[in-house]
Amino acid sequence: NYLLGVGRADCTGPVAEIPLMGYANPDQVGGGLLTRLYSRAFIMADLDDSRRVVFVSADIGMVSQRLRLEVLKKLKSKYGELYQQDNVILSGTHTHSGPAGYFQYTLFWITSKGLIRPSLNAIVNGIVKSIDIAHQNVRRGRLFINRGTVQNSQINRSPFSYLANPASERSRYSSNTDKEMVMLKMVDSNGQELGFISWFAVHPVSMNNTNHLVNSDNVGYASYLFEQEKNKGMLPGEGSFVAAFASSNLGDVSPNTKGPFCVNTGESCDNPQSTCPVGGATMCMAMGPGNDMFDSTRIIGQNIYLKARELYEKASQEVTGPLSSAHQWVNMSDVLVELNATHTVKTCKPALGHSFAAGTIDGVGGLNFTQGSVEGDPFWDEIRDLLLGEPSNETKDCHKPKPILFSTGEMTRPHPWHPDIVDVQIAVIGSLAIVAVPGEFTTMSGRRLREAVKKEFDSHGTPRMDVVIAGLCNVYTHYITTYEEYQIQRYEAASTIYGPHTLSAYIQLYRGLARAIATNTVQDLPPGPEPPLFNIGNMTLVPALTADRVPANKTFGDVLQEVRPQYRAKEVAEVTFVGANPRNSAENATEHNFLTVERYNSTSDSWQVVKNDASWDTRFYWTKGLLGRSNVTIEWHIPHDTELGIYRIRYFGHYRKKLSISHAVSFPFEGTSSAFEIT
């Protein structure tokens, strides 16, 4: 028995003009909304409430150090010492379609256009609000664990790196990805279902880098399906049941199950360099199972959801036992790793290799870099030396065989380009150990880490622990490959920023945390060096908000392109309005809803909302015109099981008006389509 609380809150932020975080493609800027982003919080406590653990899974690319520090600061001012760095885990789902701009390290500013306050604030406030809701709902309950295999939902996107791992190690596993989903189900003492956290290793990159609609990708769609099923009759984002699909060791795992093909010729490019005969690496893209990216997102999300539903319904193994958590800050650029009794190695100052710029088969880089480069390129190296300075010999030697593209650990202007101080953290709930990792562990790296942690618990009298990896927690440090995968220098290895011994260092550190928990000596762990909080104003290249304007003889919310009078199921109802910048709305209301689909009820002579902007089958597009004008187009992809009847689509926005040179105000407005019939 435990005390349990769950909560969910919107953390979407601005859906226009903000770069999306994930593919590092500067052209991929938000231009609307497919589904909302949520933070999902779970509080677990001993019955006597002596110890608490908070696990948050947020629909964002990753948790940044800035984000975590600001969340902890807010929690401290609200709750004192109750929620702090050791017992709060913040994890990102790793969607690549959420707003960027919430980082304090300079490298991330390049594609994020700086530090974007509205984006950061939306995520901080959403996470804190979800924890507040969970905190207010804490009650007695029970936990159940289950695990099972998810089929047809992932491939290894760097199989040639995986093959570099020892054959004896590979032979212990049936696949080059981890197909297991772990399910932690929560029920209160009256038997009311509260929700669950599940962990499964897959990249949420079913939506590719041509997408401009903010959304939570495949795992977010799985959450949506489960919550819609359990919160009957509620709109998305409403209802008390919370379903989290959290990330795990997804470093080399893609949902694009058809594998890599040359987009120009259609032939396979499943080769060590992921390159095509014509057009090179930029033409090599992996395809999902669907006929477009929306369809692939739906198929993979539904696979994950169906497995979760089965595991949830059959979960019968109860989790019992005490709670504990351990946390340390570590300077990852300077860890001494004891490989064995006689051999010691070191981690390195952070640096990115040439293949980092190549991207992956899920999203290629814009320049002609290829994966698997163990040689530098004199042309790019020369440009780098001129602009950013040459890496020191010490850093070059430390990272071998990685040819260094950016020596980020030696770049400090205007602020350091990469973190040195990193969080390592484990939370234990009875027989479940959640290992919170600060980045993307590959399949084999994750297996080694889980095994090492399990062994540590075993050898200190805590056998049969379920060890699960929670990915993209607390601070972002890119990838963590095995030493053997590192030698191949594909994208994941080039992005293993602390050098070839990064994984060994983490294994040593997490074993230390596990040992402290198992031997009840957590209080003796040194906290480590605190991470810096840089004093950054609003450093951003995002265009300033200007006054919105309308065409002659029109006003905000007027219909420019009307719906048709009749539609059938599976068709798309579409309407275009005179619009205004959606950023106005994000800055005015924390939970602004941009649209509704409403059905006419003749008995009550009223309109009932049946869909909102978080619904999977609605799409909100914003198109910027000249001189402050813009249009909004709303699509409703009418599902096959839609009730027949009369419907309309409504749009809700805010326009910005200048009252004086220095003072502008936003005013709400709305627009409504004509009624249409579904026949």
UniProtKB/TrEMBL annotation:
<dbReference type="InterPro" id="IPR031329">
    <property type="entry name" value="NEUT/ALK_ceramidase_N"/>
</dbReference>
<feature type="binding site">
    <location>
        <position position="479"/>
    </location>
    <ligand>
        <name>Zn(2+)</name>
    </ligand>
</feature>
<keyword id="KW-0479">Metal-binding</keyword>
<keyword id="KW-0746">Sphingolipid metabolism</keyword>
<feature type="binding site">
    <location>
        <position position="203"/>
    </location>
    <ligand>
        <name>Zn(2+)</name>
    </ligand>
</feature>
<dbReference type="GO" id="GO:0005737">
    <property type="term" value="C:cytoplasm"/>
</dbReference>
<keyword id="KW-0378">Hydrolase</keyword>
<feature type="binding site">
    <location>
        <position position="94"/>
    </location>
    <ligand>
        <name>Zn(2+)</name>
    </ligand>
</feature>
<dbReference type="InterPro" id="IPR038445">
    <property type="entry name" value="NCDase_C_sf"/>
</dbReference>
<feature type="binding site">
    <location>
        <position position="440"/>
    </location>
    <ligand>
        <name>Zn(2+)</name>
    </ligand>
</feature>
<feature type="domain" description="Neutral/alkaline non-lysosomal ceramidase C-terminal">
    <location>
        <begin position="511"/>
        <end position="678"/>
    </location>
</feature>
<dbReference type="GO" id="GO:0046872">
    <property type="term" value="F:metal ion binding"/>
</dbReference>
<dbReference type="GO" id="GO:0046514">
    <property type="term" value="P:ceramide catabolic process"/>
</dbReference>
<dbReference type="GO" id="GO:0017040">
    <property type="term" value="F:N-acylsphingosine amidohydrolase activity"/>
</dbReference>
<dbReference type="GO" id="GO:0005576">
    <property type="term" value="C:extracellular region"/>
</dbReference>
<feature type="active site" description="Nucleophile">
    <location>
        <position position="254"/>
    </location>
</feature>
<dbReference type="Pfam" id="PF04734">
    <property type="entry name" value="Ceramidase_alk"/>
</dbReference>
<feature type="domain" description="Neutral/alkaline non-lysosomal ceramidase N-terminal">
    <location>
        <begin position="2"/>
        <end position="508"/>
    </location>
</feature>
<dbReference type="Pfam" id="PF17048">
    <property type="entry name" value="Ceramidse_alk_C"/>
</dbReference>
<dbReference type="GO" id="GO:0046512">
    <property type="term" value="P:sphingosine biosynthetic process"/>
</dbReference>
<comment type="similarity">
    <text>Belongs to the neutral ceramidase family.</text>
</comment>
<keyword id="KW-0443">Lipid metabolism</keyword>
<dbReference type="GO" id="GO:0005886">
    <property type="term" value="C:plasma membrane"/>
</dbReference>
<keyword id="KW-0862">Zinc</keyword>
<protein>
    <recommendedName>
        <fullName>Neutral ceramidase</fullName>
        <ecNumber>3.5.1.23</ecNumber>
    </recommendedName>
</protein>
<dbReference type="InterPro" id="IPR031331">
    <property type="entry name" value="NEUT/ALK_ceramidase_C"/>
</dbReference>
<dbReference type="InterPro" id="IPR006823">
    <property type="entry name" value="Ceramidase_alk"/>
</dbReference>
<dbReference type="GO" id="GO:0042759">
    <property type="term" value="P:long-chain fatty acid biosynthetic process"/>
</dbReference>
